[in-house]
Amino acid sequence: MNSINLVGNISSDIDIRALNDGKFVAKFDIAVTNPYKHEKTSFLPVECWGRVAENTSNFCKKGSKVSVSGYVEVDQWQNDQGQNRYKTKIVADKIGFLTPKSSGGQQQQQQNNQNQHDPFANNGQPVNISDQDLPF
Question: I need a surface site. Which of 3, 83, 112, 123 has the fewest CB within 10 A?
Fold first, then answer.
């Protein structure tokens, strides 16, 4: 059985193209962390077709967290010197969008507003307060 499920971040710009028959194909790379060696990250090429390609290009960008479900495919060809070349890629049947819509500037502004109303949000710095200001 050839099946793969990954969760990671899109690590390249999404390249979407319309084919002559009206179908779309999107290609991008996904960065996934090794579950046993967290310092090791792999960058895997992903290809998706049709509505999956359109939606991914409309709702995701470089840095977006996604889940990818699909299968592994190996392309084989011969170069000009007659050597066999191979490229392994993930062909995605489903892509889940895991980055919330409100992430980015709106989330930062919301955090700044919350810190303005929180007297204890001092980013770990000592608070200058006198003993007379304490209620005990």
Answer: 123
